[in-house]
TrEMBL record, chain A:
Documented EC number(s): 2.1.1.214
Keyword Methyltransferase tagged: yes
Intracellular or extracellular location(s): Cytoplasm
Gene3D superfamilies, per the entry: Vaccinia Virus protein VP39
PANTHER family: RNA METHYLASE-RELATED, TRNA (GUANINE(10)-N2)-METHYLTRANSFERASE HOMOLOG
Name of the protein: tRNA (guanine(10)-N(2))-methyltransferase
Similarity remark: Belongs to the class I-like SAM-binding methyltransferase superfamily. TRM11 methyltransferase family.
Automatic annotation (TrEMBL), chain B:
Source organism: Hohenbuehelia grisea
Name of the protein in its database record: Trm112p-domain-containing protein
Domain of life where this protein originates: Eukaryota
Gene3D superfamilies with a match to the protein in the record: 2.20.25.10
CDD domains membership: Trm112-like
Protein family membership: Belongs to the TRM112 family.
InterPro entries: Trm112, Trm112-like
Amino acid sequence: MRGYLFVFAQSHSEFRIPEIQSIAELYGFSLQLPELESVGPFVVIGLEKEDHARLLAKRCILLKSVYEFWGQGSTYEELHNSTRAHKSLWDPYQQDTSFRFFVTAYNHTIPQSRQRQIMEDFSYMAYLGKIELKQPELVMGCFEEYDDTRGLAKNRVKDGNFRQVYFGRLIEEGSARALIGHFDVKKRAYYGNTSMDAEMSLLMANQTKAAPGSLIYDPFMGTGSMAYPTAHFGALVIGSDIDGRQMRGKEKPAGVFRAATQYGLASRILGLFTFDMTRNPWRCGDLFDAIVTDPPYGVRAGAKRLGRKTEPSEKHKEVYRERLASGRTDQPYIPPTKPYELSDLARDLVLLSRYLLKPGGRLVFFLPTVTDEYEDVDIQSMLCEGMEVIANSLQDFGSWGRRLVTIKKTATTSFPPPVFNTNDDTSWLGPSGHVPAHKDFREKYFQGFRKENS
Amino acid sequence: MVRLITHNLLACHAKGCNANNFPLQFKDVEIEIREAEFNPDFLRGFLPKIEWKALVDSARQIGDTSLPAEQPEMVDDDFLKSLHHVLLELHIEEGSMTCPNCSHVYPISNGIPNMLLAEHEIA
């Protein structure tokens, strides 16, 4: 494998490695990741072919560009030694290749005079080709990476006091980041106050490995935020929601269809259905390549399931029986719903996914967590046999956060349709009795995540 | 909208309705034909999931007779094209679907079927 210098966007750093792993798996090639996870934007990753770098740059949302790795060091001396050792990579361009060379820094601006000096110090490469700024055949980049000093106004970075410097040949500028603007929620024909932002929904779509011909399901469809990017990547999408108003909106045609039409994706939205995930009409399992969803967790909209919080009054029962007996269908009937506690929902979602996913299929969803209380076992406690966590990336909001969890159906056998726990008993806790920190997340959120004993 | 591809995957799920609950019968339907992208690989992969008789009967119910009564053993391009049309291009916008067993009516409005169950229908 050969090293490639990946330049990542400085957002959602926990999401970038799972993203490139998902896309590598989608295209069926392998990656060699560094042992230590980097916090900065520059990561050297091993790939078998240059084309693999191009595929990643065209699809990964967090990837800004990919360079062929020519050198690295904590000083320029180290960088030049490392570059000399990679001579066979840059030698072919010596004679007659037009080129552009730029020097830049992350968390710092290098003065022009030193930029020129840095370029001159590469004179041992002895390039004879024309310098061409507009359409060069070869682009080389030299990147200094400085520590983040935000909030430390007095200790301004000293020029040249970088953590690491990298050098390489541009292979491909990342083109997928432009999709963030394309799917901008504010410019969408239909959205709601719980719509997922474009960047995150694109990252979720990549976790599903959406591609032409894949069949993807969202059981909490809402305003369809994840349907558009997954369909954009070629997938056929089916959505359901217990509340049809979310999918429909107030105008005609239904909101999700209008937004899909705006993006030219209407034909890939296979269908929308109003039903409760735990009372679903699916005829069989092993259907979907992925299930992607953002379950409502109660801050802006709480999850609901069919049923009643409390026993109805005698009067209520009577009215209901009368209605049944009369067989009246002139009024649309709205069945009662009750709150759906988050840790119950998460467990049910995994169980249902094991039934509905094809072997190897993925469940991708957000789970809100309380930062101080979260433990990895919280995620483990929602799993069942044949379902394994393959990625767990935190988007940190301070006292709470949300985790994008990717679970793979590793089981190769089929499972019977799950029977969901409809009572609010706690037998599901199992012998260990672990209570995940996201249990009763809504209550904790509104209490400001105060510790019970404080 | 309901297309026959999803219709073929849905059965009545009311309490106690476990037999003869599929396929749901279309009634008073408004149909639109809209083009969809032809993906032969997807169709080949999906074929094993199809309940053939239910698909053919439902297609006939809404006026499309292009599919043979028996699923052909030879999967050629012509066959895949008719299958594509029936599964993906017929859109039921309004109307209802009725369970052949318990007669539960699932109304379709604005292309979205309401498959919520009433209190007495949940187990």
